[in-house]
Amino acid sequence: MPSPVDLAFSPSCFESLSWSADGDLAVAAGEYVQILTPKKLDTDSSGPKNQDEWNITRIRVNLFTVAEWQFIQPQNRDDFSLAAEQSTGTVVGVAWSPPGLGRFRRSVLAVLTSNLLLSLWEPVGIQGQWTRVAIVNHIFHLDPTAPAQLTGLELRRSNIRSFQWCPPLLAPPSQNAGLAPEPESRWGVHLLVVTNDANEAILLRVRRLVDGKISSVPYSIDKLALYSLEDGQERYPQACSASLLRSALQGKARPLSVCCGPWLEVPRTSEDIFYSATAVIATVFGTQLRVFKTTVTLLASNPVDGVIIQYEATARLSDHPLSINSSKWTPRPVNGPLNWASTDQSAAITLTAPTNIGFLAVSIPRAVYVGSATPPDELDIHEWPLSILAEEDGEGPKRYMEPISGMTAFCDEKSGVLSLHLGTMSGLGIVLNLDGSRANNSPRLPQWRKIVEDRLEQFDLDRDLGGQSVARIWGLASYRGVVAVLFSRHPTDMIEYRVTSDEKSVLAFASEDSDYSPDIQTLLAPTISATESWSPADQREAVISYVLSSMDEIAEGDPESQRLIYALACCAIVDQKGEAIRSHARQSLIRLAVLTGADLTEEIARCDEKSPTLSAKSIEQLSGPGAHMFEKCEICDAGIAWVSATEAQCAEGHLFVRCGLSFLAIQEPGLSKYCSRCRAEYINEETIARIHEGNLCPLFRNLFEAFDTCLYCGGKFQASI
């Protein structure tokens, strides 16, 4: 199990912790976000394996240019917020996107600051320097590329109060996908739901631009649908009716948190629709719980010039049959983070919401969730007061009123049990098993609570506080059955004075399964690829077959595509043993000879030989017909021979590494990317696109989009070793 990490800062908001699918942790810390990435295992080191397990990077996220955050002139009180205008930009929300959105198919970090700006961050460049790559608020301007000053309702619409990444919407693979299905089938469509000061919920689609034409704006954000929460319902029913306070609260209510449930497929309403799915979105509006639904439809575009199928998304936000009664599920104020929990086998989907004295769990049958069945008169609703566990823990009822500040749910892979973990600002921890159709199990104390208690006891002894101390939990996150808990320790019954250097917090890890205690390398190891058990030659055969069988018809008139097909055919000759793939390579070479007029007699003849090599081209061939297909040493201008699928050597002896996917020789520094797991070297297609001003040949782009993780181990890429 990873060791606890002592952090030299204090978290700045509820849900301060987020754990990405790549294993990176992000912590909200005032004006900064601290990012913890696992260190590479040093097999030569004789020190303890658990020592210094993480690299910690601190990025300041509250510095904006005038172009990014325009000046706001004083306006009427309904539209202008002095607090947001003069805010220092403290982090109030942090969350990783699902994998596949960012560079090298990694996750993108979304950060919401107290000036109501939501920005996206990712590491850029060979050194991996974290950089702001998009500001989501700009989508609400008339011209998102040149945001201007806003006033009135438009200003309120641009102020983002809360956000959450939706689960990835996975499209089913097309019939001709084969070994490399479309990116939307592997990674899904990435959607983001936000709420603003105009009391609206907006569904956004976020995409990364892969053509390299606009390097300064690497992401595209599109508005898909909008839902207004202004329906006249009570937002603060706890206030005295007909009072001035209630009237003021009613007009100033804002949606303070939002959460999107899982996607469930719904029947298609038209033959033009490729796939359609629906999800229920929950939000806390004032102190009331509100739910509504979204239906997203994917339309498949016809591939042009061999380009991989692209999916356009349309969406609709509308009332759900449960919308009318959702505010009546509990008479108590709802506040804090929301959470949806389910598994593929669950008969119901559970929504968990904190209240002022405990938490509420609502189990919604799948048929009701998708809207195909009428909601029953009584749903399976349970509400547990935190005082039950607080008394059992010996703390008494004095601290159970502290709000819930962290929540995470996950399914144990071994037992299949779906469990929900909660933490409060008084250090109370809760775990609740959700058995699919009903959330009727009794809450209990989690295993990570023991770590919190031990650290709190040590804090108390070091300062001789006599038990007058408390732990505050700032966030929970889960990854492969392991729960990470972020907490700080404080004295009670006294004034706490501290300077910045005294700010401390602890990040600890635990599992409910006592027999499951993986080290950090085992826990964060990449998921095993379906082809990892194949030999390297078989994996290369899959790439060669994919290109030559489905895309060599687009080579006519495209020199770059011809060069790539020639390299793949040569790789088949020197590396492959199967007769079918070598026969296919012969057909491609014959066609290239006809298209270019090049003399490919040697290559065609070697297709029938066992373990052949291809000699380097002569000076005459390198300047004759089809010369653009042949590789030439950029050091001495000599031809490069084909002796291996992994190495290239010119006639003068200069040695180069071949790309692990295109099998072209990599002759220049700075053109490579590397597998983060096996260190295999590949050509970085984004760098090539920038060199060609975005004009990357379709065949090259499709190949690298189809095989966007390491061919040999399934690991994700990085810019440097």
TrEMBL record:
One of its GO terms (molecular function) is histone acetyltransferase activity. Pfam families: TFIIIC_delta, zf-TFIIIC. It comes from the Eukaryota. Transmembrane segments: none annotated. Residues 620-717 form the Transcription factor IIIC putative zinc-finger domain. InterPro entries: GTF3C4, TFIIIC_delta_N, TFIIIC_Znf. GO terms for biological process: transcription initiation at RNA polymerase III promoter. The lineage of its organism: Eukaryota, Fungi, Dikarya, Ascomycota, Pezizomycotina. This is Transcription factor IIIC subunit delta N-term-domain-containing protein. Signal peptide: none annotated. It comes from Penicillium cataractarum. One of its GO terms (cellular component) is transcription factor TFIIIC complex. Residues 19-511 form the Transcription factor IIIC 90kDa subunit N-terminal domain.
